[in-house]
Design brief:
- It is a single chain.
- This protein is mainly α and about 80 residues long.
- Helices cover about 75% and strands about 5% of the residues.
- It has a two-stranded antiparallel ribbon with strand order 1-2.
- Helix 3 packs across helix 4.
Length: about 80
């Protein structure tokens, strides 16, 4: 019985009710948005050879994207589409 009283006291605290209501949305965003986005950023620094991913940290992927013409054209087209 005492535990039930403590739970009801907790729910009447101003921030606790908001936190409990926001928790499912925050967890959903974390699992389905933030974690995949972070994995893409991490994998972008890794090296690939013959479709195999190696955890060899480098900036080569970014150098290729920012210096080779086909990638720059694709990047600019993507940017224009995003703005429009």
């Amino acid at each position: 019985m005492a535990a039930q009283g403590q739970v009801s006291k907790l729910l009447y605290r101003p921030g606790a009710r908001f936190a409990l209501l926001a928790l499912p949305g925050v967890l959903y965003l974390l699992v389905f948005l933030l974690i995949p986005a972070l994995s893409i950023v991490i994998f972008s620094f890794w090296r690939t050879e013959s479709y195999v991913l190696y955890a060899d940290w480098n900036f080569e992927n970014y150098r290729v994207v920012l210096t080779e013409r086909p990638y720059l054209i694709f990047l600019m087209r993507s940017f224009v589409a995003a703005v429009l």
